[in-house]
Structures are given as structure tokens and as C-alpha cells.
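Sample intake sheet
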Amino acid sequence: MLGRISTMCKSSQVSRWILLVSLCAAVALRSPAARAQDPAHPPAAAPDTQSVPQSVSSDEINAVPNRPTFSTTAESVQAGVLEVEYGFELADGHQNLNGLVKFGATEKLELRFLHNPLERDDGVGGMGDSGAGFKYRVMEEKGWRPTISGLYTLMIPTATRDELGLGATGHSVGALLSRDFGKHHLDWNESAQWLGRPGGSGFDRNYFSALAYSHPVRGKWSMTAEVAGFSRANAGTPATLTVLGAAAYSASSRRVFDMGVYVAAYGNLPRTTFFAGVTYSIADLYHHRGKHASATQAAPSVPGSSKN
């Protein structure tokens, strides 16, 4: 996601959702300047591609993908769970490998670290920028009320070449809303970015908006569509608008694959960009689920009793 944001923010400069993990209450990770995302799904137990309900069995680890969209779901990874998202992008004059690492510090706090280990733009290759921050869930979906979270990201200029990054430190603060309507799922993001000026002082500001929709298709397959864009930051960084379409396959509750394409409706970006990636929940570092499962197995069920 950071790779996408970085590409979109420096679009005019290069022709074409890092680590300093902000412990601001305890946990966050998985974004544009990317996709969780962000970008931007679901586990095998969850049909949509961007959010996994927190109400699923507490004994099971369920992936909460930010991929494959520019937007980020308001849902957080489960407490104690370490999760990663990695993917690549291919376009005319632009290729990258982007990653997001997330950790559920608490039930509401998610720590996030984003990086682009490989970036190539117009024949210039190297490492891209990085980012660190957190997501904090303010309220969960209940009745008419959506899940609402806040997201902060520190953009760190780790690019090995000037053409591959923003060239200065930046900050992003946003509001994330997610809601299910039956099998239909919506994610809405609104955020502001303060982009440092390379070789100078002060910041340029722009705004990001995104609306993503996802729905199960058949079996473990689901689809996602999104409209996302950035406003103009300065004379060298014009506004951009992208339209995305993707498919996701939940191989298991912990592993989700995705692939798709996004098209630049306007802005100095490649016309068409193909992408693919995976979200994987590595482990529950707090061992909550392992202990719970052991206790459940050790205690035989009482005849005639039932549990929900």
C-alpha cells in the first residue's frame, strides 16, 4: 500500500496504503501510500475480501487482509496475532514488491510496518520508502453503527534513489469506516497527508478518499471493486484517481491470495497496473487460542449440554 501511495504521491516527479513503529497505545500494522491495506480481505470463514468479522471463533486465527485495495479496513488483526501481507505490481515503467507487517497489540490496537524492498520506476531500481504506524478501533459494528477506526502512518524516506521515494519524511492521519450489509461489505477511508519537502522545510498537504466494495462469489472466492484518489499536493504532484478490480481466494482462515488490476482514470500514473499478493497470519504470539483449545479438549462435554 505504501508502494502505491509513494508512486501516486511522486507521480509527476518520477514520470510516471519502515519502521519506527509508532507505539501510540500499543499496536498496528498493515497501506497507500497501499495497499492495505490497508490494502485493502477475508479468511475462508469470511466471504468478503476486506474484512473478517471479529465474532468468529476465538479459538481460530483469521486473516484480516488490507490487500488488495488502496483503502484500509477498519477491522484489526486479533490480539496477539502476527500477520504479513506481501505482493507485487507490474506496469509499463513501474514494478515493485511491497509488504505490510501487522501485530495485534490489543483487541483494539494494531501496530503496522510497511516497506517496499524492491522498487523500479522508468529503469531505475532499488529499495523504496517505508512506513510505520498504528490502527486503533474506536467502535465495533453494532446495529446501524459501522466499525470505526483511526489510522496513523509515519512515512520514512528509505529509498536508495531519489526517483524511488518521496525524499522526505511524511505523516498520514485517517478515519476508517467498515460495515456489512448482509453479504455485502463496504470500506470507506478519508485521510490527510503531510508530505515533507525534499531539501526544504515545511510540508505539502493533500487528501485521500477511497470507497471499496466486496462480496463473496462462490465457495472460497470473492471479488472487490474500489474507487480511490489523492488530491493535488503541489505543482509537481497532481491529483490522481484509480479504479480497481480484484479477486481473492481464501485458501484457509489464515491465508488469503489476491490478484487484480487498477486503472488510472487520471493523474500521472501508468495506465494499467497488474498486481497479486498474499495475506498470511503467522501465529498467535500471546498463545490465547492454543491454551483455550487445550482447555476445551481437556474438559469433556457434559451429555445433553450445548454451547454456542
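Comment: The first helix runs from residue 2 to 9. The chain has one domain: 2-298.
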